[in-house]
Design goal:
This protein has helices at residues 3-12, 33-71, 74-89. The chain is mainly alpha-helical and 90 residues long.
Length: 90
C-alpha cells in the first residue's frame, strides 16, 4: 500500500477514543485553526479518559482490598504471597 493510500485510509478510521494509537490525519503544523482546536479537544478527551480509567482502577483495587479485610482473608492472602516469594527465591 502506498503512503498516500495509507493516509487516506486513516481519515476514515478516525476514532478519538482509541487511546494511544490515535494519530492525526494531518501533521499539526499543516492544520487550520479549526482543525487544531478539534485536535486539542481530542487530546483533552484522551487525557480525561485515561485519568478516569486510572481512578476506576484504583477504586476497584480498593474495593477488593476492603472485601478481603472484611472477610478476614487478608492474612491468608499475605501468607500465600509470602510463601510464593520464598519458593521463588529458593
Amino acid at each position: 500500500m502506498t503512503k498516500a493510500k495509507h493516509k487516506e485510509n486513516r481519515i476514515f478510521s478516525l476514532n478519538p477514543l482509541s487511546g494511544e494509537d490515535y494519530t492525526p490525519w494531518k501533521d499539526p503544523s499543516d492544520m487550520s485553526k479549526e482543525e487544531l482546536q478539534l485536535y486539542l479537544q481530542i487530546k483533552k478527551l484522551q487525557v480525561r479518559l485515561s485519568f478516569e480509567r486510572l481512578q476506576s482502577s484504583i477504586s476497584y483495587t480498593g474495593m477488593i482490598i476492603e472485601a478481603f479485610q472484611s472477610l478476614g482473608l487478608q492474612d491468608w492472602v499475605l501468607k500465600l504471597l509470602n510463601q510464593e516469594i520464598e519458593e521463588a527465591s529458593e
